[in-house]
Amino acid sequence: MSTYVPSDNPFALSAEDLARIDAIREALLDPSPRRIGRLDQWGVADEYEIYAEIAEYREVRIGMADGTLIDAALSVPRNLAPGQTCPTVVLPAPLIGIGRNAYLGMLPRWSRGGYAVLAYSQRGLADSDGEIHVAGPQDVADASEVIDWLAGHDVVDRDRIGFFGSSYGAGTSLLVAAKDQRVKAVAGTSAWGDLFTSLHENGTRHLKAFEALVQLFGEERCSKEFRRVIEKIRANTIDDEVREFARVRSPRQYLEAYNHARTPILLTTAWHETIFSVPAVIDLFSGLTGARSLLVQVGDHGNGELPGLFGLISKPTEMAYRWMDHHLGGSAGDGATPQFGIRSEYMHNLLSDLSHPDWASYALPRRRFHLAGAAAGQGDAQMADGQPQADWSRSIRAARQDIEVLVAPKLVQTGLAERVGMPHVYKTAEVDRELAAIWTTAPLEQPMRVQGDLEVRVTVKPVAKNATIVAYLLDCDPATGRAAIITNAPYTLTNEQAGQATTVTFPLQPAHYVLAKGRQLQLVIGTHDHFFADANDEASTIELTSPKGTESYLDIPLSPLS
After folding, report:
1. Helices 137-151 and 168-179 meet at what angle, rounded to 10?
2. What pLDDT shows up at residue 496?
3. pTM as predicted
4. Where in the chain is CATH 2.60.120.260?
């Protein structure tokens, strides 16, 4: 089993985690007392001893129609009565070097629930042959062949097949369900809804996340089509081929198929998700008319379900067990009915747990804060409700260097720290005011909550033709000057001529955040963040203005904390 992961990989597992996964695999292949006894050091020996009594594990190579061999592992219950069948869950691998072995920690729960389980690494990933197609039509066709292969086993109930996947596996699961109605339920954690908006938000490339994913795939293993798209995205050639590549890989494009089949779909994402678009996941959820559930948690991509993949407790995996039990008839969960609608945590409180039937009831009404000009001698300005503030301007330099405030200093790892109550601290007093403009509210008179969709409007006048700005909303403690990020979004405009003023209105990422009494909201607008590719000419300037009739504002779903 290949367990090599680049040292700068934000998704890297620790040496201890890899050792545990290797030991579990060896115990599954050889459930002898010596092998299972090795698992005592991680406290899971009893689980796998029970597993060996109730289920049988074997690794297989499944041949596709074109001769490609897919690496898989099959777990089936022991001691079934003659003719007895069981529900089956298929687990396409997340994008990780160990492929399908990422799910080994889940096998005892699925097996105790009476499920047959097939985990596999998609074409080109880990130990599977072939080239990587990024959950494209070839991967969907492969998944249908995997189902064909499963259907040839007498123990598999062909009418009770579900798909569970994390990240890359979530996307694969959703796309298969759109094309193959034999999939009766889906649970996708850290899922994506629209691949294009994940790569290209408000005209801005998410280049850091994109390059991290390409590194994980390994360019040498990617299909010719994908390699061509990689080069086009790097060169900012966002043409019809790139859009079509993303479109066919976007579950949101297949709402009609999901709704026609009434496919039950569970989705999870995170408020500080830096890989896939959160609004697109919300749109996918909102467009479903069948059984649906959405969990939004504190943290970043893959943070929430990681303990569950290792066999521990996590909300995403516990919800997935209940989801499959309810729709397929197993008993891997705790016997409780799955939660439908929206379930959420607020940053940065893992113990918070709120429920709403849909996004319309979840999102609070928005309150408009008008952006004002800076007073004489002041570097910063105010934002407040009341009257629009017109005819001011703020000039910022478009240098290609980060300011103190960033979307996230590290992909995935920054969000992981947020999950344990340690959000990254920003010191906005240290922001270079030549590189960013800042607006601040008065201190809050009572605890407040931000919950739902946010929107910014500002007029941008670059010296050059094109410009990128990045907006951040922060929770700032005026006593210390320390701040935490609430949400963010970039925007890139491409003008026909230099010096053209353009009024832009764009959404920030949705948020769920609780603010203490006395805190201040701060809006920071800069021109560069290493997370994004920007369109600015180095050393040029951008003027932010507020013409009469199109005054600048920030809409926030803000309400007193009840």
Report:
1. 70
2. 85
3. 0.95
4. 367-560
